[in-house]
Amino acid sequence: MTKWEEVKTKDNTYTLKSLKYNECYHSSEGALKETYYKHVSVMEDLFKNKDEIRILDICFGLGYNTFVSILNRPKNKKLKIFSPELDLELIKSLKDFKYPKEFENIKNIIKKISKDLYYKDDYIEVEVANMDAREYIKNLKNIDIVYQDAFSPKVNKELWTIEYFRDIKNILNEDGVITTYSVATPVRCALYKLGFRLYTHKSDLIRKGTIATLKEIDYPKVNFEEKLKRVKCRVFKDS
Ligand SMILES: C[S@@+](CC[C@H](N)C(=O)[O-])C[C@H]1O[C@@H](n2cnc3c(N)ncnc32)[C@H](O)[C@@H]1O
């Protein structure tokens, strides 16, 4: 049974549309562009001085976030990437996916992860876990950055609830960061209620999302208190 349709995005890179969730894995503005500006550029910018950067990639999908992080690894720094993904058939199919030409340099890594769900060399370690993200995150610790890239709350609500974000907060380092495309009020509200500071992206090359942190950073602030004078602070909850 067909589970996906191939979609070409505006930067000429390919993504898929999931027929189960009825959503694309990336925004139409560009799979590669979105991955870099929404997630990876923030990792490079904020953690370039750390010897080892620990990334939680929610969820693996086509692996763009993981692969673009590897391609943009800050010089001489180690990356450790943890990524849950329910869809084993998708991971197994990735060795044949039409990735951007930039990914040619890491073809061996893509093939290894697609086959074994694991890769390790002197600088990079990637663990893809074929399990529910909500269970997986409970066993992690000391995460620097979470790429929060599930499908939308409409179809993938379990990965946007306040309970889920509380578990994420528990595994973040003090200077930990969450990056996401979502600007939905219930998502921002959950983060706000949990004590996160809310920022947005610097780049005008993409639709801006949300960057949530526990410490102050030099990014454009979201004036959420102002918004809360007008709207109720509603969150998604586990039902
Ligand atoms: C928007 S896609 C991720 C896109 C991905 N970051 C990429 O670069 O291609 C969302 C992914 O989350 C997976 N997923 C949805 N709910 C999940 C859950 N509870 N636990 C683990 N994976 C889940 C889906 O199978 C899908 O592959």
Question: Brief description of this entry?
Answer:
The protein is of the alpha/beta class and 239 residues long. Helices cover 29% and strands 24% of the residues. Strands 6-7-5-4-8-9-11-10 form an eight-stranded mixed β-sheet, with helices on both faces. It has a three-stranded antiparallel β-sheet with strand order 1-2-3, with no helix packed on it.
Description:
Helix 1 (31-47) crosses helix 2. The model has no long low-confidence stretch (mean pLDDT 97). This protein has helices at 31-47, 64-71, 88-93, 107-116, 133-136, 162-171, 185-193, 224-228, and strands spanning 4-8, 14-18, 23-24, 52-58, 78-84, 118-120, 124-129, 143-148, 172-180, 197-199, 210-213. The chain has an eight-stranded mixed beta sheet with strand order 6-7-5-4-8-9-11-10, sandwiched between helices. It has a three-stranded antiparallel beta sheet with strand order 1-2-3, with no helix packed on it. It is built from eight helices and eleven strands. The protein starts with a strand and ends in an 11-residue tail after the last helix. Strand 2 and strand 3 form a beta hairpin. It is an alpha/beta fold and 239 residues long. The chain has one domain: 3-Layer(aba) Sandwich (Rossmann fold), CATH 3.40.50.150. Residues 25, 59, 61-65, 84-87, 90, 132-134, 149-151, 156, 158-159 line the site of S-adenosylmethionine.
